[in-house]
Amino acid sequence: MPLLKGRRSWVAVVFALMFFGSFSSLYADIVPTLFGTGVDASGNPLPNGSVDPHYTAGGPLYTIGSPGSVGWVDNTLTSSWVSPVPNTLAGPGPFTYHTTFDLTGFLASTAQITGQLAADDQATIYLNGVDVFDGAPDNTAPWSFLQALTISSGFISGINTLDIYIPNNIEGSNDGPTGLQLNLTGTATPVPEPASVALLGLSVFALNFLRRRA
Predict the structure, then answer these.
(1) Whether residue 9 has pLDDT greater than 90
(2) Domain regions of the chain by residue span
(3) Angle at 186 between CA 50 and CA 40, to 5 degrees
(4) CA atoms within a 13 Å half-sphere pointing along the CA-CB vector of 75
(5) Phi then psi for 62, rounded to 5 degrees?
(6) What's the rounded Cα separation, in Å, for the pair 181 and 143?
(7) Which of 98, 106, 84 is nearest to 175 (CA)?
(8) Predicted pLDDT of residue 195
(9) 203: Cβ–Cβ under 8 A, 6 or more apart, which residues?
(10) Strand partners, 128
(11) Which of 160, 191, 196, 204 has the most CB atoms around its CB within 10 Å?
């Protein structure tokens, strides 16, 4: 009876080691190099007219602090509208908004982006050159509401590119406002540390040893 009890104790210890060793290396973490539009390095909204440090569109992009003046949905607490010109009247498109983020130290297969998008006009998101999200069509006024989005495939190790294509004035040649608001969060599982891998391997070895003794 004491032997059985001892065996059960050892099995409990092994499973605990396996659980904590696996858990420590498989949790999802925030990707710190992915930002929404119109925010600083800490993710705080920028003042009106500030240049966005993370996005470009063939040139600098400017934060729009009062989007309601052109009929756009409000900025959020973690993102702001940006436009190629401070007054939003950038002329006929198309415009391609561009940013990059780094998945070095993460398992690319586990990466995911969630968030919201509003665009003037219609927007299509390309991840590493592949179409991964098609926004609401122009006739739904996609600048007047935030669309939910999720991207869960197409990621690569290292540097990834995110391009948002906006064909401004697709229904005419008039010089209307144009801009983009992205509110994004990226998550991914960190690459397991060598110590965690060794602990997991030791746990599996110990479990097999106990099975042979039993």
Answers:
(1) no
(2) 2-26+194-213, 29-190
(3) 20
(4) 22
(5) -115, 135
(6) 9
(7) 84
(8) 46
(9) 14, 15, 17, 18, 21
(10) none
(11) 160
The position carrying tokens 């007047």 is 144
Q: How high is the mean pLDDT of the chain?
A: 84
- The number of CA neighbours under 13 Å toward the Cβ of 169 is 15
Measured in whole angstroms, the distance separating CA 212 from the mean position of its chain's CA atoms is: 46
Q: What pLDDT, in 10s, does the model give residues 11-53?
A: 444 444 444 444 444 688 999 999 999 999 999 999 999 999 9
Q: What is the pLDDT of residues 145-168, one digit of tens each?
A: 999 999 999 999 999 999 999 988
Question: For the domain 29-190, what is the CATH superfamily, name and number?
Answer: Galactose-binding domain-like (2.60.120.260)
List the one residue out of 108, 110, 157, 149 whose CA is nearest residue 132. Answer: 149
Q: Measure Cα distances from 182 to 4, 96, 157, 206 in Å.
A: 59, 13, 23, 49
Predicted confidence at residue 47, as pLDDT, reads: 98
Provide DSSP, 106-132: EEEEEEEEEEEEEEES--EEEETTEEE
For 80, the token pair is: 């702001």
| 161, two tokens | 């590119």
The secondary structure element, H or E, covering residue 6 is: helix 2-26
pTM for the predicted model, two decimal places: 0.79
